[in-house]
Amino acid sequence: MPPKITLFTLGGTIASTATDRADGARVSLTGDDLVRSVPEVRELAEIEVRAFRQVPSGDLRMDNLVELARAIEECLANSADSVVVTQGTDTLEETSFVLDLLVSDESPVVVTGAMRNPSLPGADGPANLLASVRVAASGLTRGMGTVVVFNDEIHAARLLRKRHSTSTAAIGSPLAGPLGHIVEDTVRVLLKPPGRLTVRLPATPPDIAVGMVSIGFDDDGRLLRQAAVAGYDGLVLAAFGGGHVPASMVAALESLAHAIPVVLSSRALAGPILRHTYSYAGGEMDLIRRGLIPSGALGALHARILLQVLLMAGVERPEIAAAFESVLTAQARLVLGGRARRPQPLSSTAVQSQPSAHEKRGSA
Ligand code: ASP
What we know:
globular
């Protein structure tokens, strides 16, 4: 029996067309149109299409993603073996990471999109959709969290970066490389993260606003001072290199870090925040001592999402710091939020033995 896949479509370039090049492309294609454009998809799986949103990805909001994560969990529990999501790439780093954090079911969740819209020669959407369905149907990413399939590569949502604004090879994982590839009609998984962090939200999570300030050369701290009075619930700092700012900013940062969680991450494309290398005013040792929370090796965009989701879950400061510490390096399943006030390691056996939807439906 072919696997059952639910395809959630959210709009974006993969679903955008231009009737006249001069008018520009707009979101216009339905999920059924997308599937029709790649007939092979129906040979790999039984596909149910769910039109979730028809928007450019910059218009998606956190509450949309919470709703999507719940719809995915509901599908995986009742009717689907795996899920594919199509959306725009502009916010793909963030939205796929939200799903990674919120969908605790171990069944494959694959997100994809396109860099060239279907009106252009060499549009990449159909190839990305087919590759994503192959990955989802293979079941090989089970237990790995949300992955993004793009340009015949499989990336962990928590590691990926959009590295280029137009290239069809825009999606990459500069810190660790892809987890696998799609070669001809075969899915090859090369690496498997040993664990993952998920967060349980309350039934009605509070609205949480997390700001992000990137520090620039010769920055006089004006924007940081504005952010401090803007009413954010948390702030992410995209600092220089291993986590550094000009000395003139440390006093403002220290008082802000006493008021709200301030996460110290880097504006560099990839790499960790240091812990004990630079002790000068504005060095990472100084900032951590003043109460900033290091993001580990999580980049600023991802750090902003993790902080927002943790605050929505009511997770408190010590666990927030622990979550940043473990989100990329967890060796087991960790759960935060909900009734769990502390990280709850689940044995990898428990994770492995979660039934697929096939088994849940008694049709394996
Ligand atoms: N503006 C588009 C969006 O994010 C770009 C894309 O789809 O890649 O929806």
